[in-house]
Amino acid sequence: MKLWLSIAAFSGFLAVAFGAFGAHGLANRASPEELNAFEIGARYHMYHALALLAVAWLATQGDSALVNMAGWAFVAGILLFSGSLYVLGITGSRALVLVTPMGGVAFMIGWLCVLARALKLPA
Predict the structure, then answer these.
(1) Range of the domain at 96
(2) pLDDT grade for 62, boundaries at 50, 70 and 90
(3) Number of domains composing the chain
(4) Which long-range contacts (CB under 8 A, 24 or more apart) does 112-116 make?
(5) I need a surface site. Which of 18, 19, 30, 50 has the fewest CB within 10 A?
(6) pTM (2 decimals)?
(7) Is 118 left (phi over 0), alpha (psi -120 to 50) or beta?
(8) With 80 as the cut, is the pLDDT of residue 63 above it?
């Protein structure tokens, strides 16, 4: 639980920091498309920082490979999905554009793992 709570807290911190940077640091330097991509990255980063809180809670309900798989899938999604959109927003480079959907798939895998673990909880 400590691992996932720590990762969730740090990830939430980074999501706020990146969001603020996008709103204030990129407003006059990035194109509207680049700024929009950056903002989507920050939004999904925060959603999944919160999802990591659910992973931390699930970890208190008994050790499960599904819980760890969900957590690492969310981390991978943040790095790949949000990270690639951050790069696009900051640099304008589309070099990582093919990585973005892989991050989205990682997010979906994480949510399916949470669902599978939740279904194992007592009613």
Answers:
(1) 2-119
(2) confident
(3) 1
(4) 113/66, 113/67, 113/69, 113/70, 113/73, 114/51, 114/54, 114/55, 114/58, 114/66, 114/70, 116/66
(5) 50
(6) 0.96
(7) alpha
(8) no
Query: Tens digit of pLDDT for each residue in 28-50?
Result: 899 999 999 999 999 999 999 99
The two structure tokens encoding residue 98? 């093919």
* Confidence grade of residue 58 (pLDDT, cut at 50, 70, 90): very high
Round to whole Å and give the CA distance between 68 and 61: 12
Name the amino acid, one letter, at 44. Y
Among 22, 80, 20, 26, which Cα is nearest to 48's? 80
Side chain identity at residue 13, one-letter code:
F
Token pair for residue 95?
């070099």
64: exposed, middle or buried (C-beta count within 10 Å: 0-12, 13-18, 19+)?
A: middle
